[in-house]
């Protein structure tokens, strides 16, 4: 294994409700075909729409791959753009999952903060990707919806001290194809990595001068 390579994990969700084919997993599989360049080891994983599975799977992905960044992708029936989520929320989980379960506490992490922001500046990512002429509209949101998407994001943000991202995609064909969504994810994640690199460089420079 080449240790100079950085590892990035990207997850999509399995089917639920009327989403018998989940656009998020299709998009992630398209991204896998495209890759993130030779410097990045890309690992993808399909996440079942179940709270309890998320609680064990997310930590295991961090342990197994030690990623620089983990990006979760989910579908939103209300989305018409590719949406970058700024934060995950701890409370308000009342919706039942695929095994008709919801957490008794209705929260992700008992005693955790109400809201955790990603370390990535989603507005910056949005601006940069929008300026690149990708042909896919990208927007930013502060509410990931209090279902498995939000639950997964919060769990990941909590474990990674903010080194996570969440992207909502519209259902397939409304208006984008799986290939479009894969290209959009590639561009978005490359910008995220670029921003993380710049932040790292700033920190090193500051350390150097003090």
From TrEMBL:
The subunit structure is: Monomer.
UniProt-listed GO biological process terms? proteolysis
Name the family.
Belongs to the peptidase C15 family.
Q: Spell out the molecular function terms from Gene Ontology.
A: pyroglutamyl-peptidase activity
Q: Can you name a GO cellular component term?
A: cytosol
Record the organism.
Cottoperca gobio
| CDD domains named among the record's database cross-references | Peptidase_C15
Q: What is this protein called?
A: Pyroglutamyl-peptidase I
EC supergroup of this enzyme: hydrolase
Active-site positions on this chain: 85, 149
Might you give the EC number(s) for this enzyme? 3.4.19.3
Keywords assigned: Cytoplasm, Hydrolase, Protease, Thiol protease
Q: Spell out the subcellular localization from the entry.
A: Cytoplasm
Reactions it catalyzes: Release of an N-terminal pyroglutamyl group from a polypeptide, the second amino acid generally not being Pro
Q: Which domain of life is it from?
A: Eukaryota
Role according to the record? Removes 5-oxoproline from various penultimate amino acid residues except L-proline.
């Amino acid at each position: 294994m080449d240790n100079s390579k950085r590892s990035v994990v990207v997850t999509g969700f399995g089917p639920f409700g009327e989403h018998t084919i989940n656009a998020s997993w299709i998009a992630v599989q398209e991204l896998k075909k495209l890759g993130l360049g030779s410097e990045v080891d890309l690992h993808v994983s399909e996440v079942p729409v179940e709270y309890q599975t998320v609680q064990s799977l997310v930590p295991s992905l961090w342990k197994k791959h030690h990623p620089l960044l983990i990006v979760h992708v989910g579908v939103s029936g209300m989305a018409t753009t590719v949406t970058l989520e700024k934060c995950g929320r701890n409370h308000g989980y009342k919706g039942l999952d695929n095994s008709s379960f919801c957490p008794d506490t209705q929260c992700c992490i008992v005693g955790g903060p109400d809201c955790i922001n990603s370390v990535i500046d989603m507005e910056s990512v949005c601006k940069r990707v929008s300026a690149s002429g990708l042909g896919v509209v990208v927007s930013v949101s502060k509410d990931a919806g209090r279902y498995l998407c939000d639950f997964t994001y919060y769990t990941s943000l909590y474990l990674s001290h903010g080194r996570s991202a969440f992207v909502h995609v519209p259902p397939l064909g409304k208006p984008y194809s799986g290939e479009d969504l894969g290209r959009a994810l590639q561009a978005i994640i490359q910008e995220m990595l670029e921003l993380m690199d710049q932040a790292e460089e700033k920190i090193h420079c500051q350390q150097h001068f003090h």
